[in-house]
Amino acid sequence: MANRPSHHAPPATHQSGTTSDSTAEPEEGYQRGLGSRQIQMIAIGGAIGTGLFLGAGTAISKAGPSLIMMYAIAGVIIFFIMRALGELLTYRPVSGSFADYAREFLGPFFGFVTGWTYWLMWVVTGMAEVTAAATYIKYWWPHIPQWSSALAFLVVLFAVNLISVKLFGEVEFWFSMIKVTAIIGMILIGLGVITFGFSAAGDTASFSNLWSHDGFFPTGVGKSLMTLQIVMFAYLAVELVGVTAGEAENPRETLPKAINTLPWRIGVFYIGALIVILAVVSWTDFEPGVSPFVAAFAKIGIPAGAAIVNFVVLTAALSSCNSGMYSTGRMLRDLAVNGQGPRVFAKLNSRQTPAVGILVSVALMGFGVWINYVDPEGAFTYITSFATVAGVWTWAMILLSHIRYRAAVKAGRAQEAWFKAPGAPWTSWIALVFLVGVFVLIGLDKDARISLYSAPVWFAVLGVGYYVLRGRNPDAFAPKESIPPVKDREPEFAQS
User: What are the TM regions of this chain, as residue ranges (predicted)?
Assistant: First the structure.
Protein backbone atom coordinates (compact mmCIF):
# COMPACT_ATOMS: atom_id res chain seq x y z
CA MET A 1 0.00 0.00 0.00
CA ALA A 2 1.05 3.60 -0.47
CA ASN A 3 2.50 5.47 2.48
CA ARG A 4 -0.56 7.70 2.43
CA PRO A 5 -3.78 7.93 0.42
CA SER A 6 -3.36 8.96 -3.18
CA HIS A 7 -5.57 12.02 -2.82
CA HIS A 8 -2.97 13.37 -0.42
CA ALA A 9 -0.24 13.19 -3.01
CA PRO A 10 1.82 16.37 -2.87
CA PRO A 11 1.27 18.52 -5.92
CA ALA A 12 4.16 19.28 -8.21
CA THR A 13 5.72 22.71 -8.25
CA HIS A 14 5.84 25.37 -10.91
CA GLN A 15 8.93 27.39 -11.49
CA SER A 16 6.96 30.32 -10.19
CA GLY A 17 6.71 28.61 -6.83
CA THR A 18 2.99 27.97 -6.96
CA THR A 19 1.34 24.61 -6.70
CA SER A 20 -1.37 23.09 -8.82
CA ASP A 21 -2.76 19.78 -10.02
CA SER A 22 -2.25 18.35 -13.47
CA THR A 23 -1.01 21.65 -14.87
CA ALA A 24 1.93 21.43 -12.51
CA GLU A 25 3.24 18.26 -14.10
CA PRO A 26 6.22 18.38 -16.47
CA GLU A 27 4.77 19.62 -19.77
CA GLU A 28 6.01 17.82 -22.89
CA GLY A 29 3.60 19.32 -25.42
CA TYR A 30 1.08 16.49 -25.13
CA GLN A 31 -2.60 16.86 -24.32
CA ARG A 32 -3.40 15.56 -20.84
CA GLY A 33 -6.48 13.76 -22.05
CA LEU A 34 -6.38 10.40 -20.23
CA GLY A 35 -8.76 10.41 -17.28
CA SER A 36 -8.75 8.15 -14.23
CA ARG A 37 -11.35 5.79 -15.73
CA GLN A 38 -9.24 5.26 -18.85
CA ILE A 39 -5.93 4.90 -16.96
CA GLN A 40 -7.48 2.26 -14.71
CA MET A 41 -8.72 0.22 -17.67
CA ILE A 42 -5.45 0.62 -19.58
CA ALA A 43 -3.72 -0.77 -16.50
CA ILE A 44 -6.19 -3.65 -16.28
CA GLY A 45 -5.99 -4.36 -20.02
CA GLY A 46 -2.20 -4.32 -19.92
CA ALA A 47 -2.27 -7.21 -17.48
CA ILE A 48 -4.70 -9.30 -19.54
CA GLY A 49 -3.65 -10.51 -22.97
CA THR A 50 -3.74 -13.46 -25.31
CA GLY A 51 -1.23 -15.17 -22.99
CA LEU A 52 -4.11 -15.91 -20.65
CA PHE A 53 -6.84 -16.59 -23.20
CA LEU A 54 -4.70 -18.80 -25.45
CA GLY A 55 -1.22 -19.48 -24.05
CA ALA A 56 -2.33 -20.77 -20.67
CA GLY A 57 -3.62 -23.98 -22.24
CA THR A 58 -0.09 -25.06 -23.18
CA ALA A 59 1.23 -24.13 -19.74
CA ILE A 60 -1.54 -26.11 -18.01
CA SER A 61 -0.67 -29.24 -20.03
CA LYS A 62 2.94 -28.89 -18.83
CA ALA A 63 2.43 -27.98 -15.15
CA GLY A 64 -1.14 -28.94 -14.21
CA PRO A 65 -2.77 -27.07 -11.29
CA SER A 66 0.63 -25.86 -10.05
CA LEU A 67 0.43 -23.24 -12.81
CA ILE A 68 -1.77 -21.29 -10.38
CA MET A 69 1.18 -21.00 -8.01
CA MET A 70 3.49 -19.95 -10.85
CA TYR A 71 1.11 -17.13 -11.79
CA ALA A 72 0.97 -16.07 -8.14
CA ILE A 73 4.79 -16.03 -7.79
CA ALA A 74 5.20 -14.13 -11.05
CA GLY A 75 2.43 -11.76 -9.99
CA VAL A 76 4.33 -10.84 -6.82
CA ILE A 77 7.43 -10.07 -8.90
CA ILE A 78 5.38 -7.97 -11.33
CA PHE A 79 3.98 -6.03 -8.37
CA PHE A 80 7.52 -5.33 -7.14
CA ILE A 81 8.42 -4.06 -10.62
CA MET A 82 5.33 -1.88 -10.87
CA ARG A 83 5.75 -0.38 -7.40
CA ALA A 84 9.34 0.48 -8.33
CA LEU A 85 8.00 2.13 -11.48
CA GLY A 86 5.30 3.87 -9.46
CA GLU A 87 7.87 5.48 -7.19
CA LEU A 88 9.81 6.73 -10.20
CA LEU A 89 6.62 8.02 -11.83
CA THR A 90 5.68 10.10 -8.79
CA TYR A 91 9.24 11.39 -8.64
CA ARG A 92 8.96 12.66 -12.24
CA PRO A 93 5.93 11.67 -14.40
CA VAL A 94 7.06 11.82 -18.05
CA SER A 95 6.00 9.91 -21.16
CA GLY A 96 9.58 8.68 -21.71
CA SER A 97 9.12 6.80 -18.45
CA PHE A 98 11.61 3.94 -17.97
CA ALA A 99 13.82 5.10 -20.87
CA ASP A 100 14.09 8.52 -19.25
CA TYR A 101 14.78 7.03 -15.79
CA ALA A 102 17.46 4.75 -17.26
CA ARG A 103 18.99 7.81 -18.94
CA GLU A 104 19.02 9.67 -15.62
CA PHE A 105 20.11 7.02 -13.13
CA LEU A 106 22.06 4.51 -15.23
CA GLY A 107 23.54 6.72 -17.92
CA PRO A 108 22.74 7.90 -21.46
CA PHE A 109 23.73 4.58 -23.03
CA PHE A 110 21.10 2.65 -21.05
CA GLY A 111 18.43 5.25 -21.81
CA PHE A 112 19.27 5.01 -25.50
CA VAL A 113 19.15 1.20 -25.55
CA THR A 114 15.98 1.01 -23.45
CA GLY A 115 14.09 3.52 -25.58
CA TRP A 116 14.92 1.86 -28.89
CA THR A 117 14.45 -1.66 -27.49
CA TYR A 118 11.02 -0.86 -26.09
CA TRP A 119 10.06 0.74 -29.40
CA LEU A 120 11.12 -2.37 -31.33
CA MET A 121 9.35 -4.63 -28.85
CA TRP A 122 6.04 -2.95 -29.61
CA VAL A 123 6.68 -2.87 -33.35
CA VAL A 124 7.24 -6.63 -33.52
CA THR A 125 4.38 -7.23 -31.08
CA GLY A 126 2.15 -5.13 -33.33
CA MET A 127 3.26 -7.22 -36.33
CA ALA A 128 2.27 -10.41 -34.55
CA GLU A 129 -0.98 -9.11 -33.06
CA VAL A 130 -2.41 -7.56 -36.23
CA THR A 131 -1.58 -10.78 -38.08
CA ALA A 132 -3.29 -12.78 -35.32
CA ALA A 133 -6.34 -10.49 -35.45
CA ALA A 134 -6.65 -11.11 -39.20
CA THR A 135 -6.46 -14.86 -38.50
CA TYR A 136 -9.26 -14.64 -35.92
CA ILE A 137 -11.49 -12.87 -38.46
CA LYS A 138 -11.25 -15.96 -40.69
CA TYR A 139 -13.23 -17.86 -38.02
CA TRP A 140 -16.37 -16.06 -39.25
CA TRP A 141 -15.33 -15.03 -42.78
CA PRO A 142 -12.80 -17.58 -44.06
CA HIS A 143 -12.82 -16.22 -47.61
CA ILE A 144 -11.53 -12.74 -46.68
CA PRO A 145 -7.80 -12.50 -47.55
CA GLN A 146 -5.73 -12.29 -44.39
CA TRP A 147 -3.65 -9.38 -45.69
CA SER A 148 -6.74 -7.24 -46.32
CA SER A 149 -8.05 -7.71 -42.77
CA ALA A 150 -4.63 -6.91 -41.31
CA LEU A 151 -4.36 -3.77 -43.46
CA ALA A 152 -7.86 -2.63 -42.46
CA PHE A 153 -7.05 -3.04 -38.77
CA LEU A 154 -3.81 -1.09 -39.15
CA VAL A 155 -5.55 1.79 -40.93
CA VAL A 156 -8.37 2.04 -38.38
CA LEU A 157 -6.09 1.88 -35.34
CA PHE A 158 -3.67 4.35 -36.94
CA ALA A 159 -6.57 6.79 -37.35
CA VAL A 160 -7.59 6.26 -33.71
CA ASN A 161 -4.08 7.09 -32.50
CA LEU A 162 -3.74 10.04 -34.86
CA ILE A 163 -7.00 11.79 -33.96
CA SER A 164 -6.42 12.28 -30.21
CA VAL A 165 -5.17 10.62 -27.06
CA LYS A 166 -8.73 10.81 -25.71
CA LEU A 167 -9.98 8.57 -28.52
CA PHE A 168 -7.09 6.14 -27.96
CA GLY A 169 -7.98 5.98 -24.27
CA GLU A 170 -11.67 5.42 -25.00
CA VAL A 171 -11.00 2.62 -27.51
CA GLU A 172 -8.60 0.98 -25.08
CA PHE A 173 -11.19 1.33 -22.31
CA TRP A 174 -13.76 -0.70 -24.25
CA PHE A 175 -11.23 -3.28 -25.46
CA SER A 176 -10.27 -3.84 -21.82
CA MET A 177 -13.93 -3.92 -20.75
CA ILE A 178 -14.59 -6.82 -23.16
CA LYS A 179 -11.68 -8.84 -21.73
CA VAL A 180 -12.72 -8.12 -18.14
CA THR A 181 -16.36 -9.02 -18.83
CA ALA A 182 -15.36 -12.33 -20.44
CA ILE A 183 -13.19 -13.36 -17.48
CA ILE A 184 -15.73 -12.35 -14.83
CA GLY A 185 -18.46 -14.12 -16.80
CA MET A 186 -16.35 -17.29 -16.96
CA ILE A 187 -15.65 -17.13 -13.21
CA LEU A 188 -19.33 -16.64 -12.30
CA ILE A 189 -20.55 -19.40 -14.63
CA GLY A 190 -17.83 -21.73 -13.37
CA LEU A 191 -18.67 -21.06 -9.73
CA GLY A 192 -22.33 -21.74 -10.53
CA VAL A 193 -21.43 -25.08 -12.10
CA ILE A 194 -19.24 -26.05 -9.12
CA THR A 195 -21.80 -24.91 -6.52
CA PHE A 196 -25.10 -26.00 -8.06
CA GLY A 197 -23.95 -28.76 -10.41
CA PHE A 198 -25.83 -27.63 -13.50
CA SER A 199 -24.70 -28.24 -17.11
CA ALA A 200 -22.78 -31.16 -18.58
CA ALA A 201 -19.81 -30.42 -16.31
CA GLY A 202 -21.85 -30.46 -13.10
CA ASP A 203 -21.11 -34.10 -12.18
CA THR A 204 -17.30 -33.75 -12.34
CA ALA A 205 -16.73 -30.06 -11.50
CA SER A 206 -15.11 -29.73 -8.09
CA PHE A 207 -12.28 -27.86 -6.41
CA SER A 208 -10.84 -31.31 -5.68
CA ASN A 209 -9.75 -31.38 -9.35
CA LEU A 210 -6.92 -29.10 -8.23
CA TRP A 211 -5.21 -31.96 -6.38
CA SER A 212 -6.97 -35.27 -7.11
CA HIS A 213 -5.20 -36.05 -10.41
CA ASP A 214 -1.65 -36.91 -9.32
CA GLY A 215 -1.47 -33.98 -6.91
CA PHE A 216 -0.93 -30.23 -7.20
CA PHE A 217 2.45 -30.80 -8.93
CA PRO A 218 1.49 -33.71 -11.21
CA THR A 219 4.47 -33.32 -13.56
CA GLY A 220 7.01 -32.40 -10.89
CA VAL A 221 8.28 -29.15 -9.40
CA GLY A 222 10.98 -28.83 -12.05
CA LYS A 223 8.55 -28.80 -14.98
CA SER A 224 6.33 -26.37 -13.09
CA LEU A 225 9.25 -23.96 -12.68
CA MET A 226 9.98 -24.22 -16.40
CA THR A 227 6.58 -22.63 -17.10
CA LEU A 228 7.64 -19.46 -15.23
CA GLN A 229 9.08 -18.00 -18.42
CA ILE A 230 5.74 -18.61 -20.17
CA VAL A 231 3.87 -17.07 -17.27
CA MET A 232 6.05 -13.95 -17.05
CA PHE A 233 5.41 -13.06 -20.66
CA ALA A 234 1.68 -13.31 -20.15
CA TYR A 235 2.23 -10.16 -18.04
CA LEU A 236 4.05 -8.26 -20.81
CA ALA A 237 2.59 -4.75 -21.36
CA VAL A 238 1.67 -4.28 -17.71
CA GLU A 239 4.33 -1.53 -17.67
CA LEU A 240 2.50 0.39 -20.43
CA VAL A 241 0.74 2.49 -17.81
CA GLY A 242 4.09 4.21 -17.23
CA VAL A 243 4.12 5.56 -20.80
CA THR A 244 0.77 7.31 -20.17
CA ALA A 245 2.36 9.57 -17.51
CA GLY A 246 2.87 12.44 -19.93
CA GLU A 247 -0.81 12.48 -20.96
CA ALA A 248 -2.66 11.54 -17.77
CA GLU A 249 -4.88 14.29 -16.40
CA ASN A 250 -3.52 13.89 -12.89
CA PRO A 251 -0.64 11.38 -13.02
CA ARG A 252 0.41 11.77 -9.38
CA GLU A 253 -3.03 10.53 -8.34
CA THR A 254 -4.23 8.20 -11.11
CA LEU A 255 -0.99 6.27 -11.71
CA PRO A 256 -0.46 5.18 -8.07
CA LYS A 257 -4.12 4.12 -7.92
CA ALA A 258 -3.71 2.05 -11.08
CA ILE A 259 -0.55 0.39 -9.73
CA ASN A 260 -2.03 -0.32 -6.30
CA THR A 261 -4.93 -2.22 -7.86
CA LEU A 262 -2.51 -4.62 -9.57
CA PRO A 263 -2.63 -7.33 -6.84
CA TRP A 264 -6.39 -7.78 -7.00
CA ARG A 265 -6.32 -7.66 -10.81
CA ILE A 266 -3.81 -10.50 -10.87
CA GLY A 267 -5.72 -12.29 -8.11
CA VAL A 268 -9.06 -12.15 -9.94
CA PHE A 269 -8.22 -12.23 -13.63
CA TYR A 270 -5.36 -14.73 -13.57
CA ILE A 271 -5.36 -16.77 -10.38
CA GLY A 272 -9.13 -16.66 -9.82
CA ALA A 273 -9.92 -17.54 -13.43
CA LEU A 274 -7.43 -20.43 -13.47
CA ILE A 275 -8.71 -21.86 -10.17
CA VAL A 276 -12.28 -21.92 -11.49
CA ILE A 277 -11.32 -23.29 -14.93
CA LEU A 278 -9.18 -26.07 -13.45
CA ALA A 279 -11.96 -26.94 -11.02
CA VAL A 280 -14.47 -27.22 -13.87
CA VAL A 281 -12.12 -29.03 -16.26
CA SER A 282 -9.47 -31.45 -15.01
CA TRP A 283 -5.95 -30.45 -16.10
CA THR A 284 -5.62 -33.86 -17.78
CA ASP A 285 -8.22 -32.80 -20.37
CA PHE A 286 -6.14 -29.86 -21.65
CA GLU A 287 -4.10 -30.00 -24.82
CA PRO A 288 -1.28 -27.68 -25.95
CA GLY A 289 -2.55 -24.86 -28.12
CA VAL A 290 -6.17 -25.14 -26.95
CA SER A 291 -7.56 -22.13 -25.09
CA PRO A 292 -8.49 -22.98 -21.48
CA PHE A 293 -11.58 -20.80 -21.90
CA VAL A 294 -12.69 -22.74 -24.97
CA ALA A 295 -12.14 -26.01 -23.09
CA ALA A 296 -14.17 -24.75 -20.12
CA PHE A 297 -17.05 -23.47 -22.27
CA ALA A 298 -17.10 -26.76 -24.19
CA LYS A 299 -17.17 -28.80 -20.97
CA ILE A 300 -20.01 -26.68 -19.58
CA GLY A 301 -21.90 -27.11 -22.85
CA ILE A 302 -22.13 -23.53 -24.06
CA PRO A 303 -22.35 -23.90 -27.86
CA ALA A 304 -21.19 -20.36 -28.59
CA GLY A 305 -18.13 -20.74 -26.32
CA ALA A 306 -15.59 -20.95 -29.13
CA ALA A 307 -17.07 -17.92 -30.90
CA ILE A 308 -17.10 -15.92 -27.65
CA VAL A 309 -13.45 -16.68 -26.96
CA ASN A 310 -12.52 -15.93 -30.57
CA PHE A 311 -14.17 -12.52 -30.25
CA VAL A 312 -12.37 -11.84 -26.97
CA VAL A 313 -8.93 -12.80 -28.30
CA LEU A 314 -9.64 -10.67 -31.38
CA THR A 315 -10.20 -7.64 -29.14
CA ALA A 316 -7.16 -8.60 -27.05
CA ALA A 317 -4.99 -8.65 -30.19
CA LEU A 318 -6.39 -5.33 -31.41
CA SER A 319 -5.90 -3.84 -27.94
CA SER A 320 -2.25 -4.89 -27.97
CA CYS A 321 -1.75 -3.44 -31.46
CA ASN A 322 -3.49 -0.21 -30.42
CA SER A 323 -1.24 0.07 -27.37
CA GLY A 324 1.78 -0.65 -29.54
CA MET A 325 1.02 2.27 -31.84
CA TYR A 326 0.54 4.54 -28.86
CA SER A 327 3.77 3.58 -27.08
CA THR A 328 6.00 3.51 -30.17
CA GLY A 329 5.09 7.07 -31.11
CA ARG A 330 5.79 8.32 -27.57
CA MET A 331 9.06 6.42 -27.24
CA LEU A 332 10.36 7.70 -30.59
CA ARG A 333 9.49 11.24 -29.57
CA ASP A 334 11.28 10.85 -26.24
CA LEU A 335 14.39 9.65 -28.06
CA ALA A 336 14.19 12.53 -30.56
CA VAL A 337 13.63 15.20 -27.89
CA ASN A 338 16.71 13.92 -26.06
CA GLY A 339 18.81 13.97 -29.23
CA GLN A 340 19.01 10.18 -29.41
CA GLY A 341 16.80 9.76 -32.47
CA PRO A 342 15.87 11.60 -35.70
CA ARG A 343 14.53 15.09 -34.93
CA VAL A 344 11.52 14.55 -37.18
CA PHE A 345 10.04 12.24 -34.53
CA ALA A 346 9.92 15.14 -32.04
CA LYS A 347 7.15 16.90 -33.98
CA LEU A 348 3.54 16.85 -32.78
CA ASN A 349 0.59 17.39 -35.09
CA SER A 350 -2.21 19.88 -34.45
CA ARG A 351 -3.91 17.35 -32.17
CA GLN A 352 -0.77 17.00 -30.03
CA THR A 353 0.03 13.43 -31.10
CA PRO A 354 3.45 12.27 -32.41
CA ALA A 355 2.10 11.52 -35.87
CA VAL A 356 5.41 10.89 -37.65
CA GLY A 357 6.62 8.37 -35.09
CA ILE A 358 3.29 6.53 -35.18
CA LEU A 359 3.26 6.52 -38.99
CA VAL A 360 6.75 5.02 -39.26
CA SER A 361 5.91 2.37 -36.63
CA VAL A 362 2.65 1.45 -38.37
CA ALA A 363 4.47 1.17 -41.70
CA LEU A 364 6.91 -1.30 -40.14
CA MET A 365 4.03 -3.26 -38.61
CA GLY A 366 2.51 -3.50 -42.09
CA PHE A 367 5.83 -4.73 -43.46
CA GLY A 368 5.79 -7.40 -40.77
CA VAL A 369 2.41 -8.61 -41.96
CA TRP A 370 3.94 -9.10 -45.42
CA ILE A 371 6.90 -10.99 -43.92
CA ASN A 372 4.49 -13.26 -42.10
CA TYR A 373 2.64 -13.90 -45.35
CA VAL A 374 5.86 -14.77 -47.22
CA ASP A 375 7.61 -16.76 -44.47
CA PRO A 376 5.29 -17.49 -41.52
CA GLU A 377 7.59 -20.04 -39.85
CA GLY A 378 11.02 -18.58 -40.67
CA ALA A 379 12.37 -15.09 -40.20
CA PHE A 380 9.13 -13.81 -38.66
CA THR A 381 9.49 -16.24 -35.75
CA TYR A 382 12.92 -14.84 -34.91
CA ILE A 383 11.66 -11.27 -35.18
CA THR A 384 8.65 -11.64 -32.91
CA SER A 385 10.50 -13.77 -30.36
CA PHE A 386 12.63 -10.69 -29.69
CA ALA A 387 9.70 -9.27 -27.69
CA THR A 388 10.56 -11.75 -24.96
CA VAL A 389 14.07 -10.39 -24.41
CA ALA A 390 12.91 -6.79 -24.83
CA GLY A 391 10.30 -7.20 -22.12
CA VAL A 392 12.78 -8.60 -19.61
CA TRP A 393 15.29 -5.85 -20.49
CA THR A 394 12.67 -3.15 -19.87
CA TRP A 395 11.68 -4.60 -16.50
CA ALA A 396 15.34 -4.94 -15.51
CA MET A 397 15.98 -1.29 -16.41
CA ILE A 398 13.02 -0.20 -14.26
CA LEU A 399 14.43 -2.13 -11.30
CA LEU A 400 18.02 -0.95 -11.75
CA SER A 401 16.88 2.65 -12.20
CA HIS A 402 14.83 2.38 -9.03
CA ILE A 403 17.77 0.97 -7.06
CA ARG A 404 20.01 3.81 -8.26
CA TYR A 405 17.24 6.34 -7.57
CA ARG A 406 16.92 5.14 -3.98
CA ALA A 407 20.69 5.46 -3.58
CA ALA A 408 20.53 9.02 -4.99
CA VAL A 409 17.77 9.95 -2.53
CA LYS A 410 19.75 8.52 0.36
CA ALA A 411 22.80 10.51 -0.71
CA GLY A 412 20.72 13.70 -0.96
CA ARG A 413 21.10 14.04 -4.73
CA ALA A 414 17.46 13.43 -5.76
CA GLN A 415 14.07 14.52 -4.55
CA GLU A 416 12.22 11.91 -2.53
CA ALA A 417 8.94 10.58 -3.98
CA TRP A 418 5.94 10.19 -1.69
CA PHE A 419 4.75 6.92 -3.29
CA LYS A 420 7.50 4.66 -1.96
CA ALA A 421 7.85 1.02 -2.98
CA PRO A 422 7.42 -1.06 0.21
CA GLY A 423 10.48 -3.09 1.15
CA ALA A 424 12.67 -1.33 -1.41
CA PRO A 425 15.39 -1.53 -2.51
CA TRP A 426 15.39 -5.20 -1.42
CA THR A 427 12.21 -5.96 -3.35
CA SER A 428 13.81 -4.53 -6.49
CA TRP A 429 16.90 -6.71 -5.96
CA ILE A 430 14.69 -9.79 -5.45
CA ALA A 431 12.77 -9.06 -8.65
CA LEU A 432 16.03 -8.49 -10.55
CA VAL A 433 17.45 -11.85 -9.44
CA PHE A 434 14.15 -13.46 -10.45
CA LEU A 435 14.44 -11.99 -13.96
CA VAL A 436 17.96 -13.41 -14.25
CA GLY A 437 16.47 -16.77 -13.32
CA VAL A 438 13.87 -16.37 -16.06
CA PHE A 439 16.66 -15.80 -18.58
CA VAL A 440 18.28 -19.04 -17.42
CA LEU A 441 14.99 -20.91 -17.84
CA ILE A 442 14.63 -19.52 -21.36
CA GLY A 443 18.09 -20.83 -22.21
CA LEU A 444 17.24 -24.27 -20.84
CA ASP A 445 13.98 -24.56 -22.82
CA LYS A 446 14.72 -25.66 -26.39
CA ASP A 447 11.39 -24.22 -27.59
CA ALA A 448 11.90 -20.83 -25.90
CA ARG A 449 15.62 -20.19 -26.37
CA ILE A 450 15.00 -18.94 -29.90
CA SER A 451 14.11 -15.63 -28.25
CA LEU A 452 17.77 -15.27 -27.21
CA TYR A 453 19.16 -15.58 -30.73
CA SER A 454 18.15 -12.21 -32.15
CA ALA A 455 19.06 -10.18 -29.05
CA PRO A 456 22.88 -10.03 -29.56
CA VAL A 457 22.42 -8.75 -33.11
CA TRP A 458 20.06 -6.00 -31.98
CA PHE A 459 22.24 -4.87 -29.08
CA ALA A 460 25.31 -4.86 -31.33
CA VAL A 461 23.47 -2.59 -33.78
CA LEU A 462 22.47 -0.30 -30.93
CA GLY A 463 26.03 -0.23 -29.62
CA VAL A 464 27.37 0.93 -32.97
CA GLY A 465 24.55 3.47 -33.33
CA TYR A 466 25.22 4.86 -29.88
CA TYR A 467 28.89 5.56 -30.51
CA VAL A 468 28.20 7.07 -33.95
CA LEU A 469 25.48 9.39 -32.65
CA ARG A 470 27.47 10.35 -29.57
CA GLY A 471 30.38 11.35 -31.80
CA ARG A 472 28.08 13.61 -33.82
CA ASN A 473 26.22 15.15 -30.88
CA PRO A 474 28.08 14.71 -27.56
CA ASP A 475 25.72 17.05 -25.68
CA ALA A 476 22.74 14.76 -26.30
CA PHE A 477 24.56 11.93 -24.53
CA ALA A 478 25.76 13.90 -21.53
CA PRO A 479 24.72 12.54 -18.11
CA LYS A 480 21.29 13.78 -17.04
CA GLU A 481 20.91 15.59 -13.72
CA SER A 482 18.37 14.47 -11.14
CA ILE A 483 15.79 16.72 -9.53
CA PRO A 484 17.47 17.86 -6.29
CA PRO A 485 15.68 17.81 -2.92
CA VAL A 486 13.54 20.91 -2.22
CA LYS A 487 15.96 22.29 0.37
CA ASP A 488 18.81 22.19 -2.16
CA ARG A 489 16.95 23.99 -4.97
CA GLU A 490 16.80 27.64 -5.82
CA PRO A 491 14.04 29.62 -3.98
CA GLU A 492 11.85 30.00 -7.08
CA PHE A 493 11.64 26.21 -7.42
CA ALA A 494 10.71 25.53 -3.81
CA GLN A 495 7.26 24.46 -2.72
CA SER A 496 5.12 27.26 -1.41
Answer: 41-60, 66-85, 105-124, 144-168, 180-201, 221-241, 262-284, 296-321, 355-373, 379-403, 424-444, 450-469
